[in-house]
From TrEMBL:
Organism: Membranihabitans marinus
Gene: pyrF
Name the UniProt record assigns to this protein: Orotidine-5'-phosphate decarboxylase
Keywords: Decarboxylase, Lyase, Pyrimidine biosynthesis
The protein's annotated pathway: Pyrimidine metabolism; UMP biosynthesis via de novo pathway; UMP from orotate: step 2/2
Record field: catalytic activity: orotidine 5'-phosphate + H(+) = UMP + CO2
Record-linked PANTHER family: OROTIDINE 5'-PHOSPHATE DECARBOXYLASE
């Protein structure tokens, strides 16, 4: 998907919501487990049916699918097929290795499967990221400042000139790809850093996880990092949306949770 197609969708739906399909088999409503051969896919299908007009992206965290083996990969593939073609998709895989191996990861998610983007760790440098950029209209979403507490262990570390590691990642990687192929992950749990990061990358999209279950808010993100006329944000919520309910009406409750986030976003779009 192109940058302009993504932007058009955001303004059409008045939403920059990414819904994280982080499906834990132990949290799926029991009636789905009893009734369906592939309860993970059925869960996703019902969530997608109830939310696709409210979000512009689905992020599938690969760990949740890998953790249940071959069946998980099959549920992942079926879910990806089911997502409407005009909705942006993220393989949240956090990959990156020597070039020869990254090439295989890129083939997995861009060739074998048809995701629009993949999350990539930057720490092995340019040759570990380049193979993902060889695919036309596919995006790399580079980890910059993550949402977890441990992000302080390395990412905030400053060099002698006072530049933090996450700042260096953002500055250097801008020479690897333009804003039509590269996004950055910045946690909603660092609202005080959002303005500064937006100044470093005025045109790039930021993928912002950490809203809801991890304590970040849509309002603070929109206030500090929203770009007029381009939005420049995909704000993700996983557990807050998909586990809003745990009974037969779980998908309706997900819709209500997604709508609440979308309406907060609409005020800025
Ligand atoms: O790359 C990510 O998506 C990501 C980066 C980060 O810094 N923090 C973070 O929480 N994530 C992912 O975003 C999702 C957050 O889930 P919830 O906290 O349930 O909304 C999970 O899939 C995480 O793996």
């Amino acid at each position: 998907m192109t940058r302009q197609e993504l932007i058009n969708q955001i303004y059409r739906k008045k939403s920059c919501l990414s819904i994280g399909l982080d499906v834990d088999i132990n949290r799926i409503p029991s009636h789905l487990i009893e009734k369906y051969d592939d309860p993970v896919f059925e869960f996703n299908k019902q969530i997608i049916d109830h939310t696709m007009d409210l979000c512009v992206c689905y992020k599938l965290n690969i760990a949740f699918y890998e953790s249940i083996g071959v069946e998980g990969w099959s549920s992942l593939a079926k879910t990806l097929e089911y997502i409407p073609a005009d909705i942006f998709t993220i393989a949240d895989a956090k990959r990156g290795d020597i070039g020869n191996t990254s090439k295989m990861y890129a083939r997995t998610f861009f060739d074998h499967m048809d995701f629009d983007s993949i999350t990539v760790a930057p720490y092995m440098g340019v040759d570990s990221v380049a193979p993902f950029l060889e695919f036309k209209e596919k995006w790399v979403i580079l980890l910059a400042l993550t949402s977890n507490v441990g992000s302080r262990d390395f990412q905030h570390h400053t060099d002698r000139k006072g530049e933090a590691l996450y700042q260096k990642v953002i500055r250097e990687s801008q020479t690897w790809a333009e804003s039509d192929r590269m996004m950055y992950v910045v946690g909603a749990t660092h609202p005080e850093k959002l303005k500064e990061i937006r100044a470093l990358v005025p045109h790039h999209f930021l993928l912002i996880p950490g809203v809801g279950a991890q304590g970040g808010t849509v309002d603070e993100v929109m206030k500090n990092a929203h770009v007029p006329d381009a939005c420049g944000l995909l704000i993700n919520s996983s557990r807050g949306v998909i586990y809003a309910g745990d009974d037969e009406d779980f998908a309706k409750k997900s819709r209500a949770a997604a709508m609440e986030l979308q309406q907060e976003m609409a005020a800025y779009l």
